Amino acid sequence: MLPCGEICHDIREGAPTDDDEAIARSLAGDLDAYEALVTRYSALAHRTASMLGAGDEAEDVVQEAFVKAYRHLATFRRGAPFRPWLLRIVANETHNLTRSRGRRAELVVKLTEVDPAKGEVPEDAAVATDRRSRLLEAVRTLPERERQAVVCRYFLQLSEAETAQVLDLPIGTVKSRTFRGLARLREGVARDLI
Amino acid sequence: MTSSDDLEAGLLALGETLDVPSPPPAEVARAVRARLESLPGADGPPAPVAGAVRARLGSVEGADRPAPVRRAWRALRPGARPRRRAIVSVVAILLALFFGATPAGRAAVVEVLRFAGVELRIGDPGPLPSGVPSPLPGERRVTLEQAREQVAFAISVPSRLGEPSEVRVSDGGRVVSLFWPGVRLDEYDGVLEVAFRKELGPPWPDQVNLGTSQAWWIPAKHGLTYLPRGGGEAPARARLADPTLIWQQKGVGLRLEGVGDLQGALEIARSAL
């Protein structure tokens, strides 16, 4: 998904090859190593900020989150996964932003055009697109708590444990909010399709 | 008709097709680096605090963690409970300050604690600063309503004090200062960056309970310096500050200055929660 993923880092001479090494070198003050870490997680961080409600201010939120992550790297438990730790900061920054603007955290995303599958007739493709946009609309209108759990689990493809860390919730709460969100979606989608 | 698996598979597939615009990662990395380089002390992430004291304490359990930084960070999460180890290490450090440090062997600054956007440099601060306090950068008088529009956080007004007699906004909306006769309450955006530095000697500050969270009480007059956002120009000179209670709520740091006794300060702070 990343335009410049792991491979780019690997071929750059001296660039750290995994998170742990990049973090160790960043802690020692190596900004090249931190730059590599930012590059690695930039797209995911933007996706998270946008989907949790940062809207067109996602870029500011992400930059701020990376600056804060660097300044608090000493509190990161070495050996723990970096991704949910970082996304927790991104989610927190997004939350601060939406709260300070006094607005609801909207899900701001667009559907991309999907090439029709081989052999698929245009009508079927249109139906599929229509179905996707209805499902997206149904997710948009979920209550915020349920929507955030669903977004983390399915759009960001985080595990339950990661979602719990990112949203700062007990894992049981993640499970129940996801469950309630899915139930609501199922009702809504079923109603629409009949 | 839509089974659970269908729905979950549909959501995953939908997620794959969602377009989230984002700038090229290398550009983001450069921008972040530029910001880090412009910050003071950009040589590395802030070193864990408590080095000097830790060395003296030897291997006190839990003291190998940068407790105050971690505490401030954890407190950002609503409902997070401070870790027992962190408390143990802070208490150990303060006990060491009381009983272990002899005036002759003590460095000018024995300990640095960071909490709620305030850096406490504890040790032998030398003579207290004198002179009239200078305004904060960009400080201007506004009404409470104007202040609410100009800052990015919710301003708390302690009900115990009522309407402030004066309101000032400073540093591009980072700080709001509310004034009542003899009392000043500064509220500032963000508790991760250091906004104020306090230099103090004995009597040492106390950690106290405020509702379900923690606060620090600085019982004596001390030197106070404001650190402009992002480093900015050279910080203003230190001024003499009265006893102060500092705490944080919802990512906003607060310092209440001028209430001489802890109970009174706590009552006011509680009425702002």
UniProtKB/TrEMBL annotation, chain A:
One GO BP annotation of this record: DNA-templated transcription initiation
UniProt xrefs under Pfam families: Sigma70_r2, Sigma70_r4_2
PROSITE patterns to which the protein is assigned, alphabetical: SIGMA70_ECF
Q: What's the superkingdom here?
A: Bacteria
Q: Please name the Gene3D superfamilies in this protein's record.
A: 1.10.1740.10, Winged helix-like DNA-binding domain superfamily/Winged helix DNA-binding domain
**Keywords annotated in UniProt:** DNA-binding, Sigma factor, Transcription, Transcription regulation
- Which GO MF terms does the UniProt record name? DNA binding; sigma factor activity
Residues forming the RNA polymerase sigma-70 region domain are 37-104
Listed InterPro entries? RNA_pol_sigma-70-like (IPR039425), RNA_pol_sigma-70_dom (IPR014284), RNA_pol_sigma70_ECF_CS (IPR000838), RNA_pol_sigma70_r2 (IPR007627), RNA_pol_sigma70_r4_t2 (IPR013249), RNA_pol_sigma_r2 (IPR013325), RNA_pol_sigma_r3/r4-like (IPR013324), WH-like_DNA-bd_sf (IPR036388)
> Which residue ranges does the record assign to the RNA polymerase sigma factor 70 region 4 type domain?
134-185
Q: Which family does it belong to?
A: Belongs to the sigma-70 factor family. ECF subfamily.
Q: What is this protein called?
A: RNA polymerase sigma factor
* Species of the source: Streptosporangium subroseum
From TrEMBL, chain B:
The source's domain of life comes to Bacteria
Keyword entries, A-Z: Membrane, Transmembrane, Transmembrane helix
Membrane-crossing residue ranges in chain numbering: 86-105
Provide the protein name. DUF4367 domain-containing protein
